[in-house]
Amino acid sequence: MQSPPSEQTLLIRYGGWRPVHPNIYKVFFNDILQKAHLIDDKPHGPAVLAFQAAINNDADLVNLFDQMFVQVWPGVNKVSSVNELLYILDVLTTAAPKLYTARDEHNKDIGEPIGIAMYVLFDLLGNTSAGYDLFRRPSFNDAMKRLLDDWGVYLQSPGSNNTLHDGPDGWFGEFGLKSLEDLGRGKFNETYVCPNENAVNRGYVSWDAFFIREFQPNARPVEPRGANLIHNACESTMLRIQRNIKEHDRFWLKGQNYSVYDMLGQREDSVSRSFVGGTVYQAFLSPQDYHRWHSPVNGTIRQICQIKGTYFAALPDDGVDLGFGERDPRGAVTRSQPWLAHSATRVVIYIDADNKDIGCVAFIGVGMAEVSTCEVTVEEGQHVEAGAELGMFHFGGSSHVLIFGNNVKLQFFDDIQAGEHVLINRAIARVV
């Protein structure tokens, strides 16, 4: 099962998904382990108790959990047992994402957001053969969805905005604002709609309200306009372009090729066949990005399909080569993003472009890790303009895919390169 990551997957930047600096990683685990040990003589909260019961009622899940802790990379894993993991879940599901601060090797203050804490928690455990089996089990994902839904209720409650402050570990502190404004995103108050721009928390009543914030009217214009242009559907970092995709392909192998049948939820009809031989564009969002989706073209919503899938599953690999014989096993989920387009919880929106040379475009919103809600805000039959909102992700990081038909000749612009952060609504390709 173990295989080295492909060259393409090594292009991913981990910022916001897991800590870049090892000292932040240590501080994060020290914090959650200390909090978990303070409550390990108390009953679990209702959500974690229900999750524990679902696991214990399935002998296969119990066995896979046990194997996962045996197989996890030694010396790197910080979580010692299922029992400890459950108490950490008690901590994480009653708290909003925040920043962590530390000092680097030069004794300089550093800070990084951990917008997807449960991803960091399950990261190493998922990079095992047992984790691969466990996290793909429908019974595990049903239990996990209930846990994440309960956490989502908290993140939509007023108490969850308590990390939206200007202290060292707050989203509006020095390090938080820097991460939110980095990569050309723009000054926060000038870029996003703030219910009260004079308040420290900018008036956001909950963590989720902050996470799904909207842009100011002129912050991301659709430029240039043109019937032959494809516009960026999500503010995101470009991952991969693949042409001549197959109806069926071995997306679980090293190359993680795209398989139309599997991406579209095992669909077999004239619509799915129109994409065979077509082109895929995939990019991923960090927790600091804008998390609403926009239409890449002028067109009419043909169909909307919700597809159940996994939340923390990844393709196990040998990690990233650090040189001198050392490898870092962390980050398997982010290295598995093409595979996740076939396996993770996702929504597919089919758009019939007004331009017949473009035809039908499939937008796929991939709910990675904690993103247990893919909310669609358009309806079938509705006409949309390029740049109009289609929907949004809640509660975590995510990825998105655009699929174009086999008769569409696309020319991507030269600056649309893997690893480059691309603002939403800007033109990424033209039909030639």
Automatic annotation (TrEMBL):
GO terms for biological process: phosphatidylethanolamine biosynthetic process. The keyword Transmembrane does not apply. It comes from the Eukaryota. One of its GO terms (molecular function) is phosphatidylserine decarboxylase activity. Keywords: Decarboxylase, Lyase. Residues 46-179 form the L-tryptophan decarboxylase PsiD-like domain. GO terms for cellular component: mitochondrion. The keyword Lyase applies. This is Phosphatidylserine decarboxylase. It comes from Rhodocollybia butyracea. The lineage of its organism: Eukaryota, Fungi, Dikarya, Basidiomycota, Agaricomycotina.
